Amino acid sequence: MTATHLMHSPGHIDPLPLPRQITPREDGRVDLIGLPRQRIAELFAEAGLDAKAAKLRAKQVFHWLYHRGVTDFKAMTDIAKTMHPWLAERFVIGRPEIVEAQQSTDGTRKWLLRTADGHDFEMVFIPDADRGTLCISSQVGCTLNCRFCRTGTMQLVRNLTPGEIVGQVMLARDALGEWPKGRMDGLDDAEDEGGYSADGRLLTNIVMMGMGEPLYNFDNVRDALRMMMDGDGLALSKRRITLSTSGVVPMMARAGEEIGVNLAVSLHAVSKKVRDEIVPLNRKYGIEELLEACSAYPGASNARRITFEYVMLKGRNDSDEDARELVRLIKRYKLPAKVNLIPFNPWPGAPYECSDEDRVRRFSKVIFEAGISAPVRTPRGRDIDAACGQLKTSAEKKSRAELERLWAEKQQALG
Ligand code: SF4
Question: pTM, whole model, 2 decimals?
């Protein structure tokens, strides 16, 4: 593990995120991943190409980067060989470094990744019979302190750049062998076209549910997701991408308007008292305000329902009464909603236990009977700490006693 120097976060509820600055590469080269095509053309022009050549080269390079996944300029066969060293001297095709790759007995894969300036974060791939979901991170650490979440015991190190966010998808495609291998000269178009659709792919869906609160890194997340949806970029459908927030209410409408992907909300409780404890951001943006923002979320409909994530914590949020209140709230705000029930995934020092199986089933039944879908998620990758709420690099391991002490301090700070 790298020496990750964690900075202190300035507060615990809706703090001003004060992430570290990104350290530029020592060799001065610019990473092209995550840059819009227009910006690449500008960089090529600044480096000496005339405007027309810069535009053409940017188009070619962009295609190689996102449709072919090449990581070496020498592989760009429709660009003159003499240009390759010119490109390599000035630019790089970045990928987060893989520090460790683990595979669960259930097929779930987790990667510990490192940024070029030495900070670690995680990414998880969850294969299912009919889909493959990549859970990606938006920040190294997190400013929020959701109490069931292991990442919440880390402090924020820094925001991930658009390149580091898109880079996770690129890396997953590398690892899964999902780049089309056809030629660029149009002689094998059939294979080429087939390669760009979700059909037959292992990686079909993206969820921004890894480390961090995406809406606290809004600009970078927006730029990265746009690149993933760009037909000239990774060309993923917005219907296959989900952004998950703990409830940063003021940013939700912008997320709908400027990004437009599916929305998931970490709800986890239906009363102020319990949600204040589990998701402390609730003290800033309460449940009613949050649900109002959900009902105004652009693009939400019965065909594109909002997902409410609900972690099942024994004796805290799992009663029939809680389930009925959840139904009441969803109906009151007329939300096109589905509820994902997540059995709590324990981690060392966690202050909760998972609800009993019967209790989870009963809770789900109450919601289903009210006409709202509430599937119970099968925990995935628990044996490699890849399950929901378990992500945390080992940069900062704390004992149960230390976690309790920190928590008490935070409560005091909140008054
Ligand atoms: S659930 Fe998300 S927002 Fe909350 S602490 Fe964990 S990573 Fe941060």
Answer: 0.86
